[in-house]
Write the structure tokens for this entry.
Amino acid sequence: MAAPGENLRINGERLWDSLMEMAKIGPGVAGGNNRQTLTDADAEGRALFQRWCQVAGCEMGLDSMGNMFALRPGTDPDALPVYVGSHLDTQPTGGKYDGVLGVLAGLEIIRTLNDMDIRTRHPIVVTNWTNEEGTRFAPAMLSSGVFAGVHSEDWAKDQRDASGARFGDELRRIGWEGDEPVGARKMHAFFELHIEQGPILEAEGVDIGVVTHGQGLSWTQITVTGRDSHTGSTPMPMRRNAGLAMARIIDKVDAIAWGHAPDAVGAVGHIEISPNSRNVIPGKAVFTVDFRSPDKAVIEDMERRLREQAQIIADDMQVEVAFEKVGGFDPVAFDAGCVGAIRDAAERLGYSHRDIVSGAGHDACWIAQVAPTAMIMCPCVDGLSHNEAEEITPQWAAAGADVLLHAVVETAQVIG
């Protein structure tokens, strides 16, 4: 089938209006959103999305993890659907575009095809994955992980938030637990549009990021145990300072990541010090090291170096150190055919583009295990995300959605 012509474009104003309308649900305190998963605000956002999909002539499916699937039929009843989407849930202090752009751009594809009376051989399904953020119920990308067989449904539904509320109970409470078995659907392909959440595209003045890989991730929780003692009366040579040992290990984390520049990254974002008193030398420190790279061998090397160098520091400072792998996933290489469809679409539409590696985890990373998958990225201002100040322009949103439209429609095969 021939690729769609370059005159086929989404309605950028309608897409932007939809983004702004959705942003009214679960408003944050500083211009962004707080629409955390399985809250009343999440339920309201889902209901709005469902109404829009029904107006567009779609049939809504709902599986037992709350994943939503809006179907536009194809002409061939035996052809597997092309899926497109992302997530509607946000961080507690999240922006208006992270995830939401990918869902509503998928809806805009359906609206555009309806406007132009274009039929495709393969059905097109717009998806809202439950609990991508993982901020209320860990881990992130939870429901797409169940769909892909990475997690069991029973385990996922038994996860609890900070208040002790259970995922399965909250899903049922807000009324979005479906009967459809998770993972029963088969896909011809899956496409996800997302803001970059990094500074590269904007800094280089590039319209479109063609995502070739998703970084792998390794989370190691380190516990350093020393001895609580008085900050004023304990001589320096007799201290077993868990806080100082932690600081020296964190410095090594940075050096290890720099040793694999430019693609590897590493940092510590979670820290707990005990007893956390002004005049007590810390006797215990618990912190989590986050290493990422598109190369699995690099991640494994960083993990090995971390353990070796942390042990040396602990021995030298007469403290104990323990390591626990608390999360992670392997790097993802996205499907060459889907990536090629995105690159061809950007070329055809005249948008500047470059290959890019996703530094964050996305639902597409799990779905890539069960279907040909690829991602598109558009710039975001200063690379800022997971922040209420997150911002994109209507032009960036439209360009990403245009490329998404062409890649999806070409894969779904236009009829006539």
Summary: The two ends are 9 Å apart (CA to CA).
